[in-house]
Amino acid sequence: xxxxxxxxxxxxxxxxxxxxxxxxxALLDDGYHDLxxxxxxxxxxxxxxxxPADDFSVAFGGSIDxxxxxxDGSNLAIKAARLLARVxxxxxxxxxxxxxxxxxxxGMGGGSADAAATLVAxxxxxxxxxxxxxxxxLASQLGADVPFAFTGGTAIGTGRxxxxxxxxxxxxxxxxxxxxxxxxxxxxxxxxxxxxxxRHAQDIFPAEVQPHVDMAVLQALRAGDPVMLASVLHxxxxxxxxxxxxxxxxxxxxxxxxxxxxxMISGSGPTVAFLAADLDSALELQVALSAARLKxxxxxxxxxxxxxxxx
Length: 311
Ligand code: C5P
Hints:
By secondary structure, this protein is of the alpha+beta class. The protein folds into 2 domains: 157 residues, 2-Layer Sandwich (Ribosomal Protein S5, domain 2), CATH 3.30.230.10; 129 residues, GHMP kinase, C-terminal domain (Alpha-Beta Plaits). It contains 10 helices and 12 strands. One of its GO terms (molecular function) is 4-(cytidine 5'-diphospho)-2-C-methyl-D-erythritol kinase activity.
């Protein structure tokens, strides 16, 4: 395949995510854990623009400080582009420009969204036409959350979190996100959970038992009922994240005192996600948390997965 006739630029957008329910099962031989999670894609987006180039490069911009991000081959977007090029036998490269709006290392899958949008943008730029199923299988080779950034909406994830089945969801949920001024390492938080389980042998998740998403979570999503969903939000990574960063507890309390239906650590943290009853309470909560000098964003979900944007 050559670059002749390819577009001058393609633009794809993929969303960040929240895990409204996350149960962590046994530690597997490959270092990953068995999971059962309910994902919701939310309206914070990563925008990837892909330009023809001879080699592979990435540059970042957008609403957040991206100065600490790697731009070499260790970056997940570059890995995504290289993987697609290899599989599609494409001989050129790509220059990626990514506008980031999902908090970095915040537990909301921003890097995964970069990778998903990169697959979509490069597929269109290079005319590889691999098709949805094959792109999805490449997504799962890139990371546990990448397939969900690709599909979006609301979905149940099992296995490493990459085996997806769509979940019915009605209406729109209103989220308020309190951002930390530090990042947390996902492997670090999982290791803390393992250490905790070793210390308290009774908590060890039996390898033969598969974790599952509670029926009540599926019912709340299907009903589009925030009060119901707030009562069943759950994250097994919350306790280890709070153990590593105890200061996050007071942020959860502050939100719950200011009208949030419930607050929880998002994924492996440190972003704290609050579920609000409606837009008005989300706005009030945003004001209250901002007054406490927190950096706050608002988002709604569910939203679409990775897709091309016509500029
Ligand atoms: O796949 P991803 O790169 O997002 O995963 C980052 C790390 O999170 C993994 O290396 C692993 O330590 C941990 N993880 C896990 N079990 C999962 C997903 C992630 O232990 N199901």
